[in-house]
Structure formats: C-alpha cells, structure tokens
Design a protein that fits this description.
CATH superfamily of the largest domain: Metal-dependent hydrolases
Distance between the termini: 16 Å
Bound molecules: zinc ion
Helix content: 40-55%
CATH architecture of the largest domain: Alpha-Beta Barrel
Largest sheet: 8 strands, parallel
Number of helices: 9
Strand content: 15-25%
Shape: globular
Radius of gyration: 17 Å
Order of helices and strands: EHEHEHEHEHEHEHEHH
C-alpha cells in the first residue's frame, strides 16, 4: 500500500505518456495504492485532472505554486476558479517561497490566504511548499487554516518540526532524497510515525543523484529508511503510513 503524496508526473518536460504508462505499471506491481499528483499552475492543473481520468491510481490535486502568483490577474483568477469549481482530491502545491528576495512577498501571502479560504470552504487538505518562509507560512496556517496540512519536503529548522509535531493539524511528508539527507533522517527520528507521509516530488529529489527523473514507487526506499531509523518492520511502517493517509484524507 505505497503512497506518494506529492508527485509531478504532469510535467511534460520529463514524462511523456508512454513513460507515465510504464511507471504506473511498475508502481502497481510494487503494490502502490495512490499517487497524489500536484499541479502548479493552470495548465498543469488541467493535466493532473486528465491523468487522474486515465489512471485510477492517480488522485488529482490542484495548486497555485508561489512563483505562479506573479502571473497576470486573468490567469490567477482562472486558477482560483479551478480550485473553487473542479472536482479534485486535495490542494497541492501551494505555499510561500521567499528564496528570491527581489520578489514581492505580499502577493504570495495574499494569494496563499485566498487559497486557504477555498480549502476551508471545500474542506480540502493542503499540501504546502515553504522555503525560506517557514515562520510566515506556519503563522498564516495556524491562524487561518481549518483543514489538515501536510508540509512537503520541509527544509526549515528542526525546532519547527518539534513544535508542529504536537499540533494535531500538521503533518510532514519525507521525500525520497532522505537516503542522502541528514536533515530528513533527523526529521524521521524526531517525528512520531503518526505524523509522517512519504513523497517523491517526482521528477526531483531522487534517492540517488544519478536517477532522474524520480518515480513515485521510489517511496518504498523511504519506507525502508524509516524502518531502519525507527527500528521497525518495513511492513509495519507501510501500514502505518497508509493509516495516516486514511485518517487525514477521509
Ligand atoms: Zn512539488
């Protein structure tokens, strides 16, 4: 019952339909249950919806990526309409990214709040990207968000992880590059298993630098790493993460 809660097979620069077909076949053989596909803008949101109609294993998530916030007003309104009106599973990928200092932060903050309002109205789980904006993202989510939140590929300070692990609304998804990242290994160590999800952020964050693009079934390697760190059986970890999935999304 492998689950990848954050993937971008919809990025056509890296995956054509034949490649996706092959990946899904291998994923099914490996017992993958779901792949949560994340859109980042209007076009990728449309592709996510299309892919979910082609493959039952794909659950469509629509998003508005921080960089997308600088598109024209027309495009932004079209994306917000998708989030308000389409049938989809969760909101992903949204959040704040302040790694580029030259960009207007307020534009991102205001749109993030509008997306949170939609999540509240439609009772959608939010899968959040936050980079160099942890303080602001967490404050906004704590104040405005009424639904559950999964912080994906969280690179902020470990103190935030400790603090949020006590808050029933927050969860973390560990990417497959955990095999080569002390930070994510520490996160696994600190977090209770009930707070952990697995993701790939495909095509990025592969278990090894040589593998590109990444594939959603590589979450099995994260499961192995969690089992090793927590000194548990692999199957036990896999089952627990599936249970987390059911608890948060249903
Ligand atoms: Zn992503």
């Amino acid at each position: 019952m492998l689950i990848d809660v954050h993937s971008h097979l919809n990025l056509k620069e890296y995956y054509n339909s034949r490649v996706i077909f092959d990946i899904i076949n291998v994923a099914k053989q490996k017992g993958q249950k779901y792949i949560l596909e994340a859109g980042v803008d209007y076009e990728t949101n449309k592709r996510v919806l299309k892919l979910s109609k082609e493959y039952d294993i794909i659950l469509p998530c629509l998003g508005l990526y921080p960089d997308t916030c600088y598109e024209s007003k027309d495009i932004i309104e079209k994306i917000l309409k998708q989030l308000k009106n389409e049938e989809y599973f969760a909101i992903s990928e949204v959040g704040l990214d302040f790694s580029d200092d030259t960009k207007d932060k307020l534009i991102q903050i205001n749109l993030f709040k509008r997306v949170i309002e939609i999540a509240n109205d439609r009772k959608k789980v939010l899968i959040v990207h936050t980079r160099k904006a942890e303080k602001e993202s967490i404050e906004i989510l704590k104040e405005f968000c009424k639904t559950k939140v999964i912080l994906h590929c969280f690179s902020g300070k470990i103190n935030y992880v400790k603090e949020l692990s006590k808050d029933p609304r927050f969860f973390f998804s560990i990417p497959t590059n955990v095999l080569r990242s002390q930070h994510f290994q520490n996160m696994i160590d600190i977090l209770p298993l009930s707070k952990i999800f697995t993701e790939t952020d495909s095509p990025f964050l592969s278990p090894s630098k040589e593998e590109f693009p990444n594939k959603p079934y590589n979450v099995e390697k994260t499961i192995e790493e969690i089992a090793k760190i927590k000194k548990l059986d692999k199957k036990e970890v896999e089952n627990m993460i599936f249970l987390n999935f059911q608890n948060v999304f249903y």
